[in-house]
Amino acid sequence: MPSSAGHHTFNRRSFLSTSLGASAGLIAAPTLATWWQATESKAATAFPAFVDDYTTNITANLTAETNAVVRALGGFAQIWKTGSAWNTGIPLKPEILRANMRYCARLTQRRTEAQAREAFVYDRQHQSYAMIGALGPLAELYRSGAKAVTSITSAPDGIPATKINDAVPADAPAGSALGAGSYDSDLGQVAKLVDTVRGPFASGNPAKFAFQYPRPWRMNEESEVVDTGTTDALGFPVYDSEVVVVTQLLRQRGTDPAEDGGFPSGHTNAFHLAALAFAYAVPERFQEIVTRAFELSHTRIMSGMHSTVDVLGGRVMATALAAAALADPKNATLKAAARKQAAEYFQARTGTTADTLFAHAHSADRDSDPYADRKANARLVEPKLTYVLTRQGRSEELTVPKGAEVLLETRQPYLDAAQRREVLRTTALPSGYVLLDGWEQWGRLNLFAAADGYGAFDSEVTVTLNAADGGFGAADTWRNDICGTGGLVKLGTGSLTLTGANRYTGGTTVEAGVLVAGSKEALGRGDVRVKGGTLSTGDRSVRVRGGYAQAGVLDVTLDRGADPALVVDGRAVLERGSKLVVRFDAEQPPRSGSTVAVIGARSLQGRFAEITVAEEGWTAQQIFTAHGVSVRLLKK
């Protein structure tokens, strides 16, 4: 199995002299800039899609014309002009690179001792093992089932006497392995998938050699390399930089600057590659896994080893590379086996089913699961999507890169490939972030947001969930604030919950199954029609901005409040056969004999054919008013 990634073992000087000729040198900056201009003028359409060309990412290919990763990171050529040597590059957008260095300096100067020690652990620990912590209540089950171990669990005091690398501890159980674990284990297919996604074409080295952007501790605020002519206690040259490397990592620094480029961050690439492989196999923790990848990548800046642009570059390349590996037909059997193995293993160990595993995977509080709070996760991820980059230029529509939809394949199995592409498109970052706007614009994808469903309905969206499919195929929640001129049609026997402050105007139709309005504005700003199935308002008052027509079931939870369960701005029509299900709020149930509003509307036509009270021993009578219908609740 592969060893821990993130460090160079390739001798670039030897490679250039033997393979490119002594005068070949680095990829010239004009080559990158010229290629970028060609891309902008649509002249680069002759290149294959990244997912079809990712195997070109090898150290024999150091140009944008020959290497798909260098192409995908081509936006960096608008920020940095590679020089003829490692220390002769020129900032093309100095305001960005100055902000980059100021950010790094501030962060490393202000970090706590605990943050420094944490940064050491995640520098030295195998990146795939580090990602297991994202699994929350499933993490320890994974470690034991995969026989995954590490020797890096804490930071030493001061500078270690020698370099430190992760290794299988001497007292580890037989068959234990670093990283994602042993192939000869109950989770061997998952471990193999992680290693495959982090395979031979996933290295950041070719791009590092192509761009030759130095580590932050070698640069000053102007992104210039200034050697002070002195050395530190370890014999390393001292550069004019305000970036402070973690003490415990000083000996881990690269000794040859030409072999030790900063952009893109290899650790960041490894974290996100492992994360997206784990997220494919264990989608019940998709957002938490993505969050941890961002958090661990941030420790690269905290450690002083990398800058913000390095980390952004690592994430961009990992997103593209993970999609390429997962979309590669030769990995189809493996990825299906890994998903199946993970689901069966965790269900068996937790006594859950496909329908209840998600709840178990989110059953811990923040004391034992640092990713238990989704809103806190969103706050952690959001600023790290762009760091110091500022948005410029006009907004341009994203064409989702070919194959990117595979990243959501297990998280949203009820959507087809075209629909998952729409999810990625409508949740993507806006254009105008120079580094993220590279070829195919992989940097604009926001997988955290995409896990919460559509960001917009730009045409009619038909979604089918079936209870028999189990897991996400049976029930899911879309948490984004959905806009757009399109509408939603709910099909299938399963359940879909909308929790956003939605603004889509094309209307909502329930034909089968259950649609749960999980917020007051969940149903958007169009008409709502319940042709079949059930519309549930939960324990809140839900607003319909247009008209309302019902032939199916309305399921409401009533309390002692005065607001109707369903507030309709337009006309409400209860068609023949429409039904009402009444539930009581557990904390403030209505009293016997009280009258509680169910629908408030501009006008109402029709009546419920049947009313069911979920609580035993109660009955409900319809009472019609000038603007709606209420129920009088009586205890038998």
From TrEMBL:
Q: What InterPro entries does the annotation carry?
A: Autotrns_rpt, PAP2/HPO, PAP2/HPO_sf, Pectin_lyase_fold/virulence, TAT_signal
Q: What are the UniProt keywords, alphabetically?
A: Signal
Q: Which Gene3D superfamilies match?
A: Phosphatidic acid phosphatase type 2/haloperoxidase (1.20.144.10)
Q: Which domain of life is it from?
A: Bacteria
| Start and end residues of each Phosphatidic acid phosphatase type 2/haloperoxidase domain | 189-326
**NCBIfam families with a match to the protein in the record:** autotrns_rpt (TIGR02601)
The protein depicted here goes by the name Phosphoesterase
Q: Which organism is it from?
A: Streptomyces graminofaciens
List the taxonomic lineage.
Bacteria, Bacillati, Actinomycetota, Actinomycetes, Kitasatosporales
